[in-house]
Amino acid sequence: MAGDALPPALPGDQTTLDTPGGRVTVYRSPPAELAQAGRPALPPLLLVHSVNAAASAAEVAPLYAHYGRNRPVWALDLPGFGLSERRDQRYTPRLMTDALHVAITHLRQTTGAGAVDLLAVSLSCEFAARVACEAPATVRRLALVSPTGFNGRRSRAGRPGSTLGVPAMYRLVRWPFWSDALFRGLTRPGVIRYFLRRTWGSQTIDEALWRYAVQTARVPGARHAPLSFLSAYLFSADIDTLYDTLRCPVWVSMATRGDFTDYRRRDRLQGRSHWQFHAVPGGALPYFEPDSGFLERLAPFWLAP
Questions:
Q1: Strand partners, 45
Q2: Mind listing the pLDDT tens digit for each residue in 232-277?
Q3: Pairwise CA distance, residues 51 & 143, whole Å
Q4: 165, 169, 217: which is closest to 53 by C-alpha?
Q5: Chain centroid to CA 202: how far?
Q6: Helix %, strand %, coil % for the chain, to 5?
Q7: Virtual CA dihedral for 184, 188, 193, 194, nearest 10 degrees?
Q8: Nearest to 208 by CA among 58, 64, 74
Q9: Using DSSP, how many helices (H) and how many strands (E) does the chain show?
Q10: What is the mean pLDDT of the chain?
Q11: How crowded is residue 141: how many other Cβ atoms within 10 Å of its Cβ?
């Protein structure tokens, strides 16, 4: 499948930005009535999809559509995913964080906003937290959906900027004799459906997201970023320190179904006044499930001064 054959994940305008990890595509929601009677004008919102073998901005489509009705909304394809450049390189939290810095700078320059709101999903919550720690004046509020770094495994308070990457694993998965075959096996339509069902914790998934995931996994170079993910190079070894350092208001959605329901290590943060933890009924992408109440639970967080 040719790279230019992949359709956009989201409607609206597209902008290409240069980042240290390659060119990235940023979507802007179509213009809408941004002010509602009796409600304060909200700053721009940037949505960041998760990281997996077939990730893209399609993972935040319901949020993009919902929030685009009353505030300026952007979403990006992270380096190595979707319509963004898929370089043959080692992908790290540094590359992903730098891409977010570039996108946020673009939003602020485009809108004149002093700070933006940021919502990230799963592993990308670690990149978002790093952005908010490194440039606190640029992030007003931070929402983390099914974030990594809170499960029952050992603490992650490593050297600043370090990762959990395993060099031997990285060399193994990139070995030319089986690298392509390994990735093709992981992204067969049935396998993608299997992992989405585990994400949902249900046999019922979003079929449009599944179809797009199958498509985006066929783009030339699609394996490069996921192979870094498989060898743990995209996981921050210092995420405990980053979460401890956050000073902006933080809202956390915890899944109650599926593979991502372990948040036992939240205890060290749960008592802090600027952290909120919410067990939202559903899987790890609860905003795809109308009965989850996700949007209703999150709304007061954005409206707070």
A1: 73, 117
A2: 999 999 999 999 999 999 999 999 999 999 999 999 999 999 999 9
A3: 17
A4: 217
A5: 21
A6: 40, 15, 45
A7: -70
A8: 58
A9: 11, 8
A10: 94
A11: 21
- What is the 8-class DSSP label of residue 72? -
Calpha distance 169→166 (Å, rounded):
5
Q: Which helix (H) or strand (E) holds 227?
A: helix 224-230
Question: DSSP states of 138-159 as a string?
Answer: GEEEEEEES-SS-SSS-----S
Residues of the chain with pLDDT under 50: 1-3, 37-38
CA torsion through residues 260, 254, 199, 5, sign = negative
Bridge partner residues of 236 (DSSP)? 163
Tokens of 2: 């040719």
**What is the dotted CATH code of the domain comprising 3-303?**
3.40.50.1820
Half-sphere exposure of 63 (CA within 13 A, CB side): 28
Write out the E strands in the chain. 13-19, 22-28, 45-48, 73-76, 116-121, 139-145, 250-255, 275-280
25 Cβ contact list (under 8 Å, min separation 6): 8, 14, 15, 16, 57, 76, 77, 82, 83, 84
Angle between helices 207-216 and 189-200 (to 10 degrees): 130
Token output for 290? 């109308």
Beta strands in 214-264 (DSSP E): 250-255
In the chain, domain spans: 3-303
Give me the helices (H) in 28-157, please: 61-67, 93-111, 124-134
Residue type, 32: A
Using CA of residue 16, residue 98, residue 93, residue 198, what is the dihedral sign?
A: negative
Q: Are 293 and 253 in contact (CB under 8 A)?
A: no
Per-residue pLDDT, 39: 56
